[in-house]
User: Which sequence fits this backbone?
């Protein structure tokens, strides 16, 4: 029964991650499927226990008692949303029901016994492959009806859109890099390559900053702990994979899909019928990719809209302080469409007030603090604990980091991964630690 529960949990996390990077975010069918999977995982996990159902629930849910500040943060967050809604004629009151459901999801994840960091790693790796492989195949066979390519060259497909597909690579990147730094085996390098390739094909500037920061921090930790197996080989391999993804694969694949090379190929074949030497013709012909590459977009990207969002958000936060203007009330025009503020913390302050912002930060920062303290509390166990807790702690860190550049969601597809990471911290780091 434990194996069955583990399978249901894996599918729940995979679908949560896929829901994060797909177009139909928040669809009722997604909620229904995820809740059913989670219920199945909870029931089978309880059935595998040697204790009675009541005793098992009591023992496992008691772990939440060690995280009273986290629960207090959630209550403050909910209270802030409710206060903002009451102060603004009920605006955004419906979000309370969704956020309340998240606490039930967290409770079920805490009850599930086989929820481990390794299971989270396996689930995220599976979601990465499911997102990346179809994109590569669709691009190679030019199935443009199933692809989504933005005007600046960002690539995705109908189930993993550009602008969000990078997230699955970003979640995998920390433990993929750590594995490469410890043992640069081919399967570890392939996992890191898949993660960086997804980020390259999407071209999110947030993911690029995350990539560099994670790499630098993990390199410092590996050097300080002397866990490098082959440091030069590890960093050189990661560097080559990163350069290959951003400088070669992304622009070449983009130009292949757009048909940029078709006239060149036709000309080469027609001109080489007489001399038969296509290699020389290739060397003589300019086949430089167009400027619609990720690197070019990152250099020349326009930040005026983001700056306008920050300006409007701060102005609205000051005007509606301290209760906020109601969920989703702070908006700006983004290329002709109304958009929320792309910064979670300013969005919360402007929409739901200071109470919700404080509660949100307490809810996420307290378990992150407990996890980091657990890892660093005993020097002789640091490497072992760091290796174990890297995935859930980096997941929480990335979610907080994304809040600097992206809005807050109230969908289970966005929160499923975060709630799983929180549950792992709760179940693996108790008061005695």
Assistant:
């Amino acid at each position: 029964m434990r194996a069955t529960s583990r399978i249901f949990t894996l599918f729940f996390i995979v679908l949560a991650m896929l829901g994060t990077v797909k177009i139909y975010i928040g669809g009722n069918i997604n909620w229904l499927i995820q809740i059913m999977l989670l219920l199945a995982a909870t029931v089978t996990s309880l059935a595998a226990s040697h204790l009675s159902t009541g005793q098992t629930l009591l023992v496992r849910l008691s772990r939440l008692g060690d995280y009273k500040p986290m629960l207090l943060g959630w209550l403050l967050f909910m209270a802030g949303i409710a206060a903002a809604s009451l102060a603004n004629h009920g605006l955004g009151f419906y979000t309370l029901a969704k956020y309340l459901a998240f606490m039930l999801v967290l409770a079920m994840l805490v009850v599930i016994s086989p929820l481990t960091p390794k299971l989270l790693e396996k689930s995220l790796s599976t979601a990465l492959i499911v997102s990346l492989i179809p994109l590569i195949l669709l691009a190679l066979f030019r199935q443009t009806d199933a692809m989504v390519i933005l005007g600046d060259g960002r690539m995705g497909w109908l189930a993993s859109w550009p602008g969000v597909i990078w997230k699955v690579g970003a979640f995998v990147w920390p433990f993929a890099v750590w594995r490469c730094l410890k043992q640069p085996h081919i399967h570890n390098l392939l996992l890191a390559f898949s993660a960086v390739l997804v980020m390259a094909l999407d071209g999110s500037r947030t993911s690029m900053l995350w990539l560099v920061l994670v790499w630098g921090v993990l390199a410092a930790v590996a050097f300080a702990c002397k866990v490098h197996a082959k440091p030069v080989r590890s960093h050189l391999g990661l560097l080559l994979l990163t350069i290959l993804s951003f400088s070669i694969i992304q622009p070449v694949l983009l130009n292949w899909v757009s048909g940029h090379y078709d006239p060149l190929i036709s000309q080469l074949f027609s001109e080489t019928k007489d001399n038969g030497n296509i290699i020389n013709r290739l060397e003589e012909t300019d086949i430089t990719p167009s400027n619609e590459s990720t690197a070019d977009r990152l250099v020349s990207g326009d930040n005026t809209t983001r700056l306008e969002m920050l300006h409007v958000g701060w102005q609205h936060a000051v005007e509606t302080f301290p209760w906020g203007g109601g969920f989703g009330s702070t908006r700006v025009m983004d290329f002709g469409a109304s958009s929320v503020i792309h910064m979670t913390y300013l969005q919360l302050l402007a929409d739901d007030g200071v109470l919700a912002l404080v509660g949100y930060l307490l809810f996420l920062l307290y378990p992150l603090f407990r996890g980091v303290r657990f890892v660093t509390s005993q020097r002789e166990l640091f490497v072992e604990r760091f290796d174990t807790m890297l995935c859930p702690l980096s997941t929480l860190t990335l979610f907080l980091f994304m809040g600097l550049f992206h809005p807050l969601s109230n969908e289970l597809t966005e929160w499923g991964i975060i709630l799983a990471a929180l549950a792992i911290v709760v179940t693996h780091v108790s008061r005695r630690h």
Summary: Strands lie at 147-149, 155-157, 331-334, 337-340. The CA atoms of residues 124 and 172 lie 6 Å apart. Confidence is low (pLDDT under 50) at residues 285-291.
